[in-house]
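Sorry to interrupt, but I need a hand with the structure work. Could you write out one complete protein record for me, on any chain you like? Just paste the record in under my message, thanks.

. . .
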Amino acid sequence: MKFGQLTAALFALAALAACGDPTLLTVHASSTTRATPDLAIVTLGVSARGATAQAAQTAQSTRMNAVLAAARAAGVEERDVQTVGFSIEPQYSYPRNESPRVTGYISRNTVSIRMRDLSNVSSLIDATVAQGANDLQGIQFTFENEEGSRDAARAEAMQTARVRADAYAEAAGMRVARVLSIIEPGGEGATAPYANRYNVGRAYEVSARDAAQSAVMPGQLDAQSAITVVFELR
């Protein structure tokens, strides 16, 4: 705050105090903290082709069963696996001067897998790719308790607000008597660089050789808090 603005604020505080009315001070404060995530959500799938819809579905189902078995062997529990996409689509050829013809079918099955042991994410990817997972759609690093992950930022924001209030009160020859209200605007939440927070992008096909020894780094995520605090000065 510039010197002129500070002087005007102090004069206003002094004038209110002289009138005998409660002197109120509104302070805005924010804070950003960083912490290592404790949850990874891996989104991957299987796609398989066949001459008929049933053949494509059978091939995909066989491969997906092997992928899920590999996930269980890597320590994933049943409750942490969820189907997020499933489709069977015809494939066409387009001969010149002829109507399109169905040449086969492709079956896709996509699941999201929640992992709490982040040290096993690389092993999970390698094991599932080796068993037939060929549609890797990304990894989301987050907090299992996202609300709790912002508590440290909230505490810092409140501390900042109090320090500012004390500075204003001292400059005006007063003291902070009590906190009258604390407002936390909606929409504040844990945020992170796009590549760390939700690196989905474009789905792509891989082979076991392409994905061998996957390097996965969770990094850290930002947690933000912004508050408005109204203090009473005396």
Observations:
- The CA atoms of residues 31 and 155 lie 9 Å apart.
- The domain at 1-36+146-234 is CATH 3.30.110.170 (Translation Initiation Factor IF3).
